[in-house]
Write a structure and sequence with these properties.
Length: 325
Amino acid sequence: MRAFHSDHFVLPLPPGHSFPMSKYRLLREAAEATLPAVRVSEAPPASDGELALVHEPDWIAAVAEGTTTAAQQREIGFPWSERMAERARRSVGATIMAARTALMGAGGEGAKCREGVAANLAGGTHHAYPHKGSGYCVFNDVAVAARLMQAEWHRQHRALLRVIVIDLDVHQGNGTAAVFRDDATVFTLSLHGARNFPFRKEASDLDVELPDGCRDDSYLEALDRALAQAWARHTEGAPGLAFYLAGADPHENDRLGRLKLSAEGLAERDRRVLEALRLRRIPVAISMAGGYGRELGQTVAVHRRTLELACDSWRAWRAMEECAP
C-alpha cells in the first residue's frame, strides 16, 4: 500500500504550544519500521492551480507571500513562516497523491490496476475554508483533492465522479461542509463531538453529533446507522471515490477529544469503514486527521493501527482486482 508524507518541513510553534507536529515524523518512522507493505513516498507540493480549485486566489497568495494578518494566524493557531506555507502545500499534495493512487493506480491515469487504498500520513485539514484557514488547517486537502480527481476522471472517462467524505475526526469538518454545500456530487458525512470545536458548525450532508463521554458501543452503533443512511441516499449508485479522515482524537486519552473510545474501539471503527468501502468497490484515500493524546505514543499507535488495517484492506482489494502485489 502506498502512503505519502509531508513532514520534511518542521513547523515552528510558539513555546508551550500543544499541537504535536512530531507525531507525523514518528508515524512515518513506525510505518517504515513495522509495516513492510507500506511504501512511503514524499509528496510534491500542491500547485497554485490545484489549490485554486477550492481556495480563493487572495488566500493562496497571502499564505505564499507571508501577508496573512495576525488575526488570520491566530485563527489558524500558529504563526506564518516559509516552512509552514510549504508544509501546507505538501499536506495537500500528499492527499492528492493518495487519492490519485487509490483511484487510478500508482502510475496515474495510465495505470493498469487501481491500488484501491492509499494514505496521507498527515492531512485531514478539514477546518480550512476557501478564503481562510482555521483550527490548525491552512488549506483543505480533501476538498482540493476531491475537485482535482473529479476533473482528472472527467478528462479520462468523460463521466462524473461522485465522491463521499467520511469524516471521523472528533471535530466537525466545517470547512469541508462549507466547500461542498449544495453540491450533489460530493456527499459529506461527519461524526463528531456535539460540544467540541468548531462551536459554530456548518451543515454536512449528514451530521451525527455525539455526547461527551461517548464510548465504543454507542459510537459504533452511531457509525453503523450513519453509513447505512449514507448508502441509502446514493440512489444512483455507490460513489466512485472516498476520502476517510481517520482521526485519533476520539481516543479516551486525547486532550481535546472529550469522547471515550478505546484503541480497540477505534480499530473496529476503521475496520467497519474500510470493509464497507471495499465491499462496494469504492477506492479510498485516508488522512490521519487529528490526534492530541496526553501521551504522544498512544496517538501514534492509533494512527499506526489505522495504517495496518488499511494494508489489510489493500491486500483484499488487490486480490479482488487480480493485481500483482
